[in-house]
Amino acid sequence: MGFCFSPASRSVSMFPNVSVLLVLLLSCSFFASTEAYDALDPNGNITIKWDIMSWTPDGYVAVVTIFNFQQYRHIQAPGWSLGWTWAKKEVIWSMSGGQTIEQGDCSRYKGNIPHCCKRNPTVVDLLPGTPYNLQIANCCKGGVISSWVQDPANAVSAFQLSVGSAGTTNKTVRLPKNFTLKAPGPGYTCGPAKIVKPTKFATPDKRRVTQALMTWNVTCTYSQFLAQKTPTCCVSLSSFYNDTVVSCPTCACGCQNNATMPGSCVEPNSPYLASVVSNAGRNNPLVRCTSHMCPIRVHWHIKLNYKEYWRVKVTITNFNYNMNYSQWNLVAQHPNFDNLTQSFSFYHEPLMPYGTINDTAMLWGIKFYNDLLMEAGPSGNVQSELLFRKDASTFTFEKGWAFPRRIYFNGDNCVMPPPDAYPWLPNASIRWGVSRFSLGLILLVLVLHSGLF
Ligand SMILES: *[C@@H]1O[C@H](CO)[C@@H](O)[C@H](O)[C@H]1NC(C)=O
Ligand SMILES: *[C@@H]1O[C@H](CO)[C@@H](O)[C@H](O)[C@H]1NC(C)=O
Ligand SMILES: *[C@@H]1O[C@H](CO)[C@@H](O)[C@H](O)[C@H]1NC(C)=O
Ligand SMILES: *[C@@H]1O[C@H](CO)[C@@H](O)[C@H](O)[C@H]1NC(C)=O
Ligand SMILES: *[C@@H]1O[C@H](CO)[C@@H](O)[C@H](O)[C@H]1NC(C)=O
Ligand SMILES: *[C@@H]1O[C@H](CO)[C@@H](O)[C@H](O)[C@H]1NC(C)=O
Ligand SMILES: *[C@@H]1O[C@H](CO)[C@@H](O)[C@H](O)[C@H]1NC(C)=O
Ligand SMILES: *[C@@H]1O[C@H](CO)[C@@H](O)[C@H](O)[C@H]1NC(C)=O
Ligand SMILES: *[C@@H]1O[C@H](CO)[C@@H](O)[C@H](O)[C@H]1NC(C)=O
Ligand SMILES: *[C@@H]1O[C@H](CO)[C@@H](O)[C@H](O)[C@H]1NC(C)=O
């Protein structure tokens, strides 16, 4: 299904006859979750950099920095954990800005006991409010890392460790192996550590540059398929020109199954709810019973039609009683995003993974206003209106053109309704400049030309 994400098929989406297209996109989104490659963020990765700052009598002191180079995927509470396997018998004497979750067996040490003697340590971030003497720059955020577009200053996390029983020169040091990054669940796959040019650091007054004694990088990439087998989000649609509300596809994220899994979902007014919410562990989804069973629903309502503009209302609803989504974000693809004039209650930023096609935007909440999508219930939703400027050559309400092509919530693809269910225009207004036949022909030629079939 690689073709789904080729730039060629994206350019096709600039054309208004979308029924064929939507079928294409839909069949793509169905398979999208099996791909490690993300078409809207093709270079997205998390890079883990180890900088050796000094050699010690039996090892080295390193600063480990985790950079989230993903445009829209962030790591939220309870945060990342990073594991690796030592190449030899290394131990961690001490750490700041982070800690291992287990000390392991240090019984062969007397007097000075290492922080961790495990062959495969797992490190987590320290919590906010950690004493200053245990902090380093960019640490102590409870493992939360922002996405690169949303907040680049907080897209970094770091800790420092002093390693013993290790090589003490750049010839004898052995790189750790088998890196694993949990965020906090599965989803990331990390490559091997590679020695790179030593990092250069500028002093605060920028009058002197120092450098690491040695640096290696590890790159980790995300796959929705590895993270979870079922979708977590769906899309519903409505419009001012048709009373039909197209709800999320039934069973988009799972089916209600009372017989085999009682308690797999809860009714909003059940007395049972209060007890399960307090008993279910954090991060166990506890979704409200719906036909789609998704924890998140994104509703796209075509609200108004002006002469030169049109207006959409986007509502994100949380159906998960056990999750507050902090710093949530939405990525939406629609050909009119190149003329998004205003987004009233969300921040927005165009994403242009291919440089020229400007049909994708990232939207997120305003700090302290709606950047926290609260657990399911009366406050469990956020909304904004989007104002688009019409481009006369492409704009139409016909054939579902005004609905989004693709929506991601927190980096995960949302299930769209089937295109044949989209609200129709009332018959009388089906009159637009170019005939549907010729548009269909253009599209067909394009599709054939880009070798899709
Ligand atoms: C990781 O992302 C950065 C920033 O986008 C990019 O420069 C780098 O090439 C990427 N690394 C890999 C291995 O893709
Ligand atoms: C190791 O250090 C020597 C100088 O002591 C330097 O010439 C060499 O490039 C370094 N090698 C690596 C892999 O950093
Ligand atoms: C790599 O790490 C995983 C998880 O920690 C572990 O199951 C696996 O055995 C490790 N592989 C090697 C070669 O150490
Ligand atoms: C190693 O990682 C750093 C920081 O992420 C990056 O600036 C550098 O380009 C990376 N080096 C390579 C060779 O990928
Ligand atoms: C499951 O149970 C709920 C009430 O507990 C009910 O509303 C729903 O219809 C049931 N679903 C099925 C598929 O039986
Ligand atoms: C969500 O946040 C509210 C207010 O901060 C808090 O009362 C509630 O317990 C949180 N819910 C979860 C599931 O963390
Ligand atoms: C992309 O579209 C946005 C409006 O959504 C606009 O502000 C921006 O200038 C456009 N960028 C390019 C390169 O056309
Ligand atoms: C829409 O955006 C495109 C690209 O940014 C621009 O060329 C075009 O003039 C805009 N149309 C209107 C009506 O503003
Ligand atoms: C509204 O759209 C639905 C398809 O979702 C269609 O069945 C219905 O006829 C449309 N209503 C009108 C008034 O066109
Ligand atoms: C729209 O037109 C089709 C045939 O072109 C007809 O079958 C349908 O009933 C009409 N719908 C409405 C709401 O008038």
TrEMBL record:
Gene Ontology cellular-component annotations:
plasma membrane; side of membrane
Locations listed in the record: Cell membrane
Kindly state which keywords UniProt assigns to this record, in alphabetical order.
Answer: Glycoprotein, GPI-anchor, Lipoprotein, Membrane, Signal
Which domain of life, per UniProt? Answer: Eukaryota
Specify where it is mainly localized.
Answer: membrane
Q: Name one process (GO BP) from the record.
A: cellulose microfibril organization
Topology relative to the membrane: Lipid-anchor; GPI-anchor
Q: Which residues form the COBRA C-terminal domain?
A: 232-423
Q: Which Pfam families match?
A: COB_C (PF25079), COBRA (PF04833)
Q: Where is the signal peptide?
A: 1-36
Q: Which InterPro entries match?
A: COB_C, COBRA_pln
Report the family membership.
Belongs to the COBRA family.
Name-wise, this protein is: COBRA-like protein
